Amino acid sequence: MESKKVSPKDVFMNLLGMLTLYVSAISLMALLFQYVNLAFPDALSYQSYGSVAGPIRWAMAALIIVFPVFILITRMLRKDEREHPEKREFAVKKWLVYFTLFVAAIVIVTDLVTLIYNFLGGELTMRFILKMLIVLFVATKVFWYYLWDLKEKFTAVTLRIALWGIIAVVVASVAGGFFTVASPLKARAYRFDEQRVTDLQNIQWQIINYWTQKGAIPKTLADLRDPISGFVVSADVESGAEYEYRAVNKLTFELCATFSLPAIGGGTSMMSRVPMPTKDPYLENWNHDIGRTCFERPIDPELYRKNPIPVPAQD
């Protein structure tokens, strides 16, 4: 007669299975929530490319790595239970299953409270409805799966259908992420373009500060070097080339850079096929095309007044 003693392996496998389930379920909900935010933008909620793409990439990464581990662990546990039916009665397994049911119930209640709170605060109705349906779909599927498991209602066929159905939903969700945030190469190109815009903004404000202090715009970018503040003019992070600068006249200057992608709505190289719902007004004047793009900046003397350099007192 085989021993019914719980081994460390049994505890580890069941714990790992539950942990990967939690991470997979949370990541799937987070991913679907971002799709809802993109499909139904809220004018009161500012969304930059990074604020949307970042959570999508995290959720995708978690699903790509963790979800296959969950499927593998589930298959291994099922195979082990078929070979050793007494393991279905292990206390540690039942404790973990009931704990999972408890967590699923808490998630359903908590998320519904949160969603209703946001709805009462003005959350768009369609966003509210879809997010509520996502929470109910994911949490109830987890609840249903383990409730059936406890009641031993799963046959080999129903288990296979359930697992393949879950796999299909996850694969479709991850594929949608690639469609939304594009390829890793384009994501890297976007980040380079984003850094270029940031560099040009910093240089622009240094030029304006130079003019307000000295009454003239610099002849070259080298004039902006300040050993006291430590400011050094940045170079292109990808190519290492210096940014182009030209003094057009006494109050106008031009900055140029070479970009990898065209900007879509507000100075960032948004390569997503889904347009951003809102624009950043501070980036509107940094729109650019692929390749070399120049930005002409006239200084308004009424807005940026010159500060005369104080003359040291004579003894």
- Strand arrangement within the widest β-sheet reads 1-2-3
The count of β-strands is 3
Structural class: mainly alpha
Count, helices: 6
Can you give a write-up of this model?
There is one protein chain. This protein has 315 residues and is mostly helical. The chain folds into two domains: 8-181, no CATH class; 185-298, no CATH class. The chain has helices at residues 8-39, 49-83, 91-120, 125-150, 156-181, 184-214; strands spanning 244-247, 252-259, 291-298. It has a three-stranded antiparallel sheet, with helices on one face. Helix 1 (8-39) runs antiparallel to helix 4. The longest helix is centred in the N-terminal third of the chain and has 35 residues, at 49-83. The termini are far apart. Mean pLDDT is 77; it is low at 266-282 and 311-315.
Produce a short descriptive summary.
With 315 residues, this protein is mainly alpha-helical. The protein has helices at residues 8-39, 49-83, 91-120, 125-150, 156-181, 184-214, and strands at 244-247, 252-259, 291-298.
Properties at a glance:
315 residues; mainly alpha; 2 domains; 3-stranded antiparallel sheet; 6 helices; 3 strands; 6% strand; membrane; DUF5671 domain-containing protein; transmembrane; transmembrane helix; DUF5671
Topology, pairings included?
Blueprint lengths: L7 H32 L9 H35 L7 H30 L4 H26 L5 H26 L2 H31 L29 E4 L4 E8 L31 E8 L17
Antiparallel strand pairs: 1-2, 2-3
Helix pairs in contact: 1-2, 1-3, 1-4, 1-5, 2-5, 3-4
